[in-house]
Sequence to fold (490 residues):
Amino acid sequence: MMQTRSITLPPAFSIFPTLNPPHKTFTFHQICVLIITFLAYASFHASRKPPSIVKSVLGPSVRSNSSSPDSEGWAPFNGSEGTRRLGELDLAFLSSYALGMYFAGHVGDRIDLRIFLVFGMMGSGIFTLVFGLGFWFDVHLLGYYLIVQIVCGLFQSIGWPCVVAVVGNWCGKEKRGLVMGVWNSHTSVGNIVGSVIASSVLGFGWGWSFVLPGFLVIASGFLVFSCLVVSPRDLGFEEPGKEIELSVEENGEGVSRKSEAEDTNLLETPEDSDSSLVAIGFLEAWRLPGVAPFAFCLFFSKLVAYTFLYWLPYYLRHTAVAGVHLSHKTAGILSTIFDIGGVFGGISAGFISDKIQARALTSITFLSLSIPALVLYRIYGSVSMFTNIALMFISGLLVNGPYALITTAVAADLGTQDSIKGSNRALATVTAIIDGTGSIGAALGPLLAGYISSRGWNSVFFMLIVSVFFAALFLVRLAKAEIKERTSSR
Fold:
């Protein structure tokens, strides 16, 4: 049955009529959408960062001149089982996030994305605040923190399918990798902002590390509600064309890409417009060419990225650099170097994949180089502060490059391919499948790190390296097809 979407412009367009066409151009609104969605998802990530910053305060601490834990911390995370319980806390959030992602994408393709996104942002902000209130109310029940993290994860899962679908509506294929690589730096920027905020107020009590990022998400939600336009057609603009076709070759070698018509901004007929509003089914989206390999690749890639996201400050606090243990605040701020590297990684991966027109090959290259980078960081990262920063930056660049590429440009490519047969309401569903599968890996990584770290950090890094290997393995067939296509076209 055909589905049509009612158009409701944000309040800002009624308050300021000059925002409407023809006063403002398509490019103006496109830039506004990129900025608003950038700020929205950066605030989401900023609110995810506090748990990693406060780990060293909640869990067993380390004396500055010893590697043995002392009696400090916050019950129930400060005992001998402290690191495991912190890992379980991460699992609670990320499991509900991964589960919610599948439903969020399915729902997002069927209702107003702006309202749905605002709903997720408000819920995320409120429950981030509720977690921090545990400090002032002196809550020491593990169940309290687990329930708050589960509910918060469900609200957070709404964000990613919504913002990618909106950006996909406004951005065509041309330079999509570069544009989305720059745009996707919101992940790292959010991590950096969250780390700086949470670390800066940690001395006043760990609850403040949650309260401020929580208010940040809520404030960003008001911006989205007031200003975000979901689709160009809501303002009477033509939508950017969907120029690529991904199809599995009959010989099973992989996927091939075909260029569509040169002019991608032709006006649609009413029949075309109606058919393009049909939302794709969940199982049908799984069967789209390229979706499953990239989804399983992201499972392992995100496992690695989120292990760093949730455990890097703790690792820096508990691993001496040049023979000195860092303070809680210094470890939290220093961990942002990994995210700064991630900004450059996402941009460079997007730029390279645009140039060579090979997303899978670009991802495999980054993943392969990240293996020696992780080995070097573990071995030489403690030698000096300079080597720690340099190797952390390189590791962040190589680990986050393919992760950023897959969750943005690849998801948008796969969600707008011609095999969807006219439906442009598949972006949120496809994005949710890819990032939802990746989020299952993201849930397992921090949990495993919490258990494995008791055996030593070498075991944790071994787990990360094995995960990177499997991530690359899932893209081998697609990369071979890309290489074959590049060589045959010459």
About this structure: Residues 12-59+80-231+277-488 form a domain with the Growth Hormone; Chain: A; fold (CATH 1.20.1250.20). The chain has one domain: 12-59+80-231+277-488. Residues 63-71, 242-277 have pLDDT under 50 and may be disordered. The longest helix spans residues 385-415.
